[in-house]
Write a structure and sequence with these properties.
It is a single chain. 57% of the residues lie in helices and 17% in strands. It contains eleven helices and twelve strands. β4 and β5 form a beta hairpin. It has 500 residues and is an alpha+beta fold. It is found in: Membrane.
């Protein structure tokens, strides 16, 4: 089936057609011309050989026949004529007088040569002659030799004949054999060309074309086989290199597009945050003065009012004002543009200041943040006010979420500083991504109990200090959530005071 399918597909195999038209057929034509000229030359050689055979036979018996003819010994003449049949395929032998009349004969022969031009020419010139003639409807080739006595006088004529078809049969057999050989050579050449092309060129070319079709169909991961002749292997290697370059270029293009999209998203986010910051800054500024006035008037009225109900109402007003004031401070902190006030401070002092600041906000029953292990003695170059604000917001978020405990752990090595703030609260809600919680104005607290800016401020300040923030749930071995962990990471080797 494979050979049949290949033969059916052969007309489309242009390379095979070209090999056939420009290599095999010219070669076969040259061989055919060589055979044609060879047959013509061989025909002449065979004819000469057959003539030579008759001439040799005639020369061998001419002298004895000449002596027997002079002695009129017919028995000897017939004996010599009979002897030619033992030498080769001779069909007739005869002796004639100079007048062309038959003297003795054996086999197929003519009775009278008085009208034969060949016989007359031999007698006249004394030279041997040969030629074709017909006897009893049969074509014969006869060789005529003059019978000469010892004095050189012609006194007879010797004729030796064989069938003309002997020449034709010999040449026909030779021609048939030659053309059959040519045909066998042609078929063998075609078979060798087809089979050799299939094994040496056709199969590698088919594999290469198949590889190109797969790539054209969209399979960009396909690579061509490097088997086959060196030239085709080089083409396949070039195709593979081109595909690798295209894949690399496409990968780079995708990376550039992703980076461009990320930068566009980041720019859009920065533009949004800048717009929000401007609005927030304006709102905080406008709210700050009225809240101060309300708090001052409430404090004055609290000193003037003596009844308990009025004092409770005024305390409630001041509590709400303080709550609003804290929200205004958060808004101002979020909208704050960092100032290059970098200083070298001690980490333990910075942690302690943050703990002191958060202690003023604690209500009865709130978890008190504490250090799990003593803080390492590390000196940092940073903006102390901004970084303390980040710590306070992180601690405030943990205190608001904790049930009974907020732990602080500080880990420092040669390259980075890590501050872990852990609480034992309910953790992040199911399906709530930590990245979403870090966004501004996103809060997991009930409505009215948070602005959603605390963790956003922490992330903003850490980014200003080339650090990062991570928020994750704490889980036990049974995957039960036991609280949240806020991780602040600061690269110590990259925190430097910026140039003015």
């Amino acid at each position: 089936m494979t050979i049949l399918s290949n033969l059916r597909r052969w007309p489309q195999a242009s390379l095979q057609r070209r090999l056939l038209l420009f290599v095999v057929l010219p070669m076969l034509l040259l061989v055919g011309l060589a055979i044609r000229f060879g047959l013509a030359l061989t025909s002449e050689l065979v004819s000469n050989s057959l003539r030579t055979d008759l001439e040799l036979i005639g020369r061998a018996i001419r002298v004895p026949i000449s002596d027997a003819l002079l002695q009129q010994d017919m028995a000897a003449i017939n004996a010599h004529l009979e002897s030619v049949f033992t030498i080769g395929r001779v069909y007739g032998a005869s002796v004639y007088g100079t007048d062309g009349r038959l003297v003795a004969a054996t086999g197929v022969t003519e009775r009278d040569l008085s009208d034969s031009e060949l016989a007359s020419e031999v007698v006249r010139t004394g030279l041997q002659q040969d030629g074709y003639h017909s006897v009893s409807g049969q074509s014969l080739f006869s060789h005529f030799l003059p019978v000469i006595d010892r004095s050189g006088q012609i006194h007879g004529l010797l004729q030796i004949s064989r069938k003309g078809s002997d020449f034709e049969q010999s040449l026909s057999r030779m021609s048939t054999l030659a053309w059959l050989s040519w045909l066998a050579l042609a078929l063998l050449s075609l078979m060798i060309m087809w089979r050799g092309h299939q094994r040496a060129i056709g199969q590698p070319v088919h594999q290469l074309v198949d590889s190109m079709r797969q790539v054209a169909a969209g399979n960009s991961k396909h690579r061509a086989s490097l088997e086959g002749p060196a030239e085709l292997a080089e083409v396949a290697a070039g195709l593979n290199q081109m595909l690798d370059d295209m894949a690399q270029a496409q990968s780079q293009l995708l990376s550039q597009q992703e980076e461009q999209q990320r930068m566009q998203q980041q720019l859009k986010k920065q533009e949004t945050m800048a717009a929000i910051g401007q609005v927030v800054s304006g709102v905080a500024h406008e709210l700050g003065a009225p809240l101060s006035v309300i708090d001052g008037r409430a404090q004055r009225l609290l000193r003037l009012q003596q009844d308990g109900d009025s004092q409770r109402q005024l305390d409630a007003i001041r509590g709400q004002v303080q709550r609003l004031s804290r929200m205004v401070k958060q808004l101002q902190a979020f909208a704050h543009t960092p100032v290059a006030s970098w200083q070298t401070v001690s980490l333990p002092e910075l942690i302690q200041q943050a703990l002191t600041s958060i202690s003023f906000e604690l209500q009865p029953g709130d978890a008190v943040p504490r250090l799990l292990v003593p803080c390492p003695q590390v000196a940092l170059t940073l903006d102390p006010d901004r970084f303390e604000l980040a710590l306070v917001n992180g601690l405030r978020n943990a205190v608001q979420a904790a049930r009974s405990e907020v732990l602080i752990q500080v880990i420092a090595d040669q390259h980075s500083l890590t501050i872990l703030i852990e609480d034992d609260g309910p953790g992040l809600p199911t399906g709530q991504a930590a990245a979403d919680v870090m966004q501004p104005f996103v809060s997991t607290k009930p409505q009215g109990q948070g602005t959603g800016l605390g963790l956003a401020i922490v992330q903003q300040i850490l980014q200003e200090h080339q650090g990062n923030v991570q928020l994750s749930n704490k889980t036990q071995s049974d995957q039960e959530i036991t609280g949240c962990c806020l991780t602040l990471t600061l690269p110590l080797t990259t925190v430097k005071e910026p140039k003015s």
